[in-house]
Amino acid sequence: MNLTLKIWRQKGPKDKGSMVDYKVSEISEHMSFLEMMDVLNEQLINQGEEPVAFDHDCREGICGSCSMFINGEAHGPDRGVTTCQLHMRMFKDGDTITIEPFRAKAFPVIKDLVVDRSSFDRVQHAGGYISVNTSGNTQDANAIPISKHAADEAMDAATCIGCGACVASCKNASAMLFVGAKVSQYALLPQGRIEAVDRVKNMVAQMDLEGFGNCTNTGACEVECPKGISLENIARMNREYLTANIKD
Amino acid sequence: MSGFFKSSIGRKYAMALSAFFLMIFLLQHFAINILSVFSADAFNEASHFMGTFWIVQYIFQPILIFGVVYHFVMGFILEAKNRSARVKKYAKNNGGANSSWMSRNMIYSGLAILAFLVLHFIDFWIPEINTKYIQGDMSGLLADGEGYRYYEELTHKFVSPLRVGAYVIAFVFLSLHLLHGFSSAFQSAGISSMRKKKLQTFGKAYAIVLPLGFIIIALYHHFNH
Question: Does domain A3-111 match CATH 1.10.1740.10?
């Protein structure tokens, strides 16, 4: 198929940037979106132009690196997939595809489609862990009884890959689905309860500090999340936060 | 709890709490207004009770005013903060693919409701405060002393088709606001209405039936008087 691509080009963090049109031809419908971008970049290199910078790593939908806003949606029009798992069969011959970086004050653009998502790392560092002495005498996790329901919900929350699609999709650039998932995956398990009060307070404080917007429950994040993280995690984080503030 | 209401989640709780209060108030307001369709006397009695009972006047009314002002002011503050969280807008943003129009435009439905409240206060609340607390007439009687004035005042206001039209439009916006606001308030308060189908269905019914009821009351008095 032949396509017109409207791509955000920005030389560096301080560059103003603009949308630039490109033509690509003979794109197979079996290609992934990133493979289509590879074809474009080879074309640009052969023409002596600067290739389009974009984040990618595993290309298996699990690392959360690829972060494009395609035709007005994070990771494009397909559901439950990252950009690397989005296939060109989702588009038609002759389509014009708009490709932009994830936009949020807390995700500044580094170059072209690459954004700095280290704000997520700082939120995670603020409490998204459990303090376990791993010197060899740690209790076997399987010896701690956990209900199937709690284990399943914790696992569902833990599937968040921190790609940032929730922030990119939210009209308020809110990170509450990400933080809600990270709070929930520990809050649901006995190992995580010990530090639950400090965890939720510190992670929410860091989230606010990073400049993310406030959740208004549009549900866009849940729809666009490639891992299907549920809004239930935001409700749970809100409960955890209230309880933590009452206890403290 | 220090700093709770300065945090993003604390403000969500505050917005939800003020929304719960306003939704309960709306139900009570409707319950009294609908009486006017069935019985002028019942409406007069209920209005006089609400207008003179000290708990309503000196406790609930100030709380209500605080709730309304807080909900609007905090709504605008959060909107401004949320807009600043994305400095550069998308060239193409397909919001309709992942969220409802109502959820994305709460600020505009809220502004329409605010404009209506200004009209409503000019129509009813300010004259009521003037009569009772400035002129000192707590009797609730008509100028000639023949019965209560409330029903007469109500029907008089709905003579103008322009005013009735404004009320109908405002209640359509109220419905749109509530269609997202009801379940959103529960979600913000940590009660996931998204998974509780019964609550969601009740919320939709509330968001449609209540404003529709207010519209019916306005149209009933317009065409019957």
Answer: no
CB A218 within 8 A of CB B104: yes
The tens digit of pLDDT for each residue in B64-108 reads 999 999 999 999 999 999 999 999 999 999 999 999 999 999 999
Over the stretch A136-177, which tens digit does the pLDDT of each residue have? Answer: 777 787 888 999 999 999 999 999 999 999 999 999 999 999
- Cα separation, A65 vs A146, in Å, equals 32
Superfamily of domain A118-134+141-247: Alpha-helical ferredoxin (1.10.1060.10)
Number of A to B CB contacts under 8 A, please give it.
139
Which residues of chain A are within 8 Å of residue B108 when distances are taken between CB atoms?
none
B8 at interface of A, judged by CB pairs closer than 8 A? yes
Residue A219 has, within 13 A of its CA and on its CB side, a CA count of: 19
Q: Do B85 and A212 touch (CB under 8 A)?
A: yes
- pTM listed for this prediction: 0.94
Task: Find, among A162, A186, A178, the residue nearest to A215 by Cα.
Answer: A178
